[in-house]
User: Fold this.
Amino acid sequence: MPYPYVLLSAAVSLDGYLDDTGPERLLLSSPADFDRVDEVRASVDAILVGAGTIRADNPRLLVNSAERRAARVASGRPEYPLKVTVSASGELDPAAKFWHTGGDKVLYTTDRGAERARSLELPADIVPLGPDLRWRTLLGHLHDVRCVRRLMVEGGGTVHTQLLQEGLADELQLVLAPLFVGDPDAPRLFGPGGYQGGRLRLLDTRRIEDVVLMRYEPTAPGAAGVASAADRHWLALACELAAACPPSRTAFSVGAVVVAADGTELARGHSREAGDPLVHAEESALAKIDPADPRLATATVYSSLEPCARRSSRPAPCARLILEAGVRRVVTAWREPDTFVSAADGTGLLTAAGVDVVVLTEYEDRAKEPNAHLL
Assistant:
C-alpha cells in the first residue's frame, strides 16, 4: 500500500525537551526558523499533530505568508494544507483553534472515538479506523482518499515516537535550540521503545540565527512482510541504477542494492555493469560482498525487477544466488514479465525457501521506464 512521504518536524532544547512545564508554550525556534517552517508547511499536502498537541498548545497550523498561500492557489492546490489530527478517544475541544482556522480538517479515531467526536460536533471529517488506531491504515487513507503525497508531522512526542518505531518516517527535520529545560516532567521528543530506523543518515545541517537545523533520513530495512520508509529509499535507488544501465534489446535494465540490517549499504550493481553484457544486477552486487560476511544473513536485497528464476546466459539465476548468499529478505518493484523467459517466478522460488519478499508496486512505473522499449 502506498503512503505519503512522512516528514517529522520538531525543535528541542539542548537536553532534548520539546517544551517546559510552564503555562505558556516555550518558544524554541528563532524567527528565521519559524519562517522556514512556514515554507515547509506551504510545500506539503497535509500537516498532522496529535490530540495532545492540540490540548497543550492550541495551534492554528497555518501557512502565514500570503505570498506562499497565493503560490499554492496558483499551482492548483488549496490555500492551506489539509489539517490532520489523531485521537483514540475523540475527546477534543470543539473551540480549539485547530478547527476554526485554515482549510479542511480530518480527525482519525477509533469507532468509539468517532461516536464521541460526533457528539461534540467537531467541525471535521471524522474517519474511524476500527477498534484501534493503526498508522498504516491512516497513512494509506490519506494517500488514497485524501490524495496526500507529502505529510508534515509537527508532533507531539508520542506521534513522532510511534511513526519512527513503525518505520514510517521518511525524514526528520530537527532544530536544536541553545537552551536547557532541565525538568524531568517536561515532554521529550521521543519516548522509550524499539526503533526500526537504526542509525539515521545525516542529509544536511544549517545554522539559522542561533539554532541549528539537522535533516536526517532512516536507513534500516523494515521488518518481515512490512515495508519501511527506508525500504522505499533503497528501492528508489535501485530504480535509479536501472536507469543507468547500458540499453539492450535482449535483456532488461535492472538495478540492485544490498543493505545490512543496520542500514549500511553493502554493495550495489546494475545490469551489464563494467562492460559485462551478461551480468545481472543482483549478481553484480552480491559478487562485491565477501560470502562469509555475517551481515548477509539479515540483509535485504533491493531489486528494481523481481530476481530471475531462470536464465540462459549463466548457470545460476539471481534468485538462486540470493539463496546461496543466505539473504532472507528481498524488496522489489516489479514482477518479471514473460518477455524473455516464460513462467518467470523468482518470487515463488524465494518464498518457497523461506525468503520474505515485499513488492512495492508504487515503484513499478519507475522500474519499467528504462525498459519501455521492451514492453
Summary: Residues 137 and 198 are 23 Å apart (CA to CA). The first helix runs from residue 31 to 43.
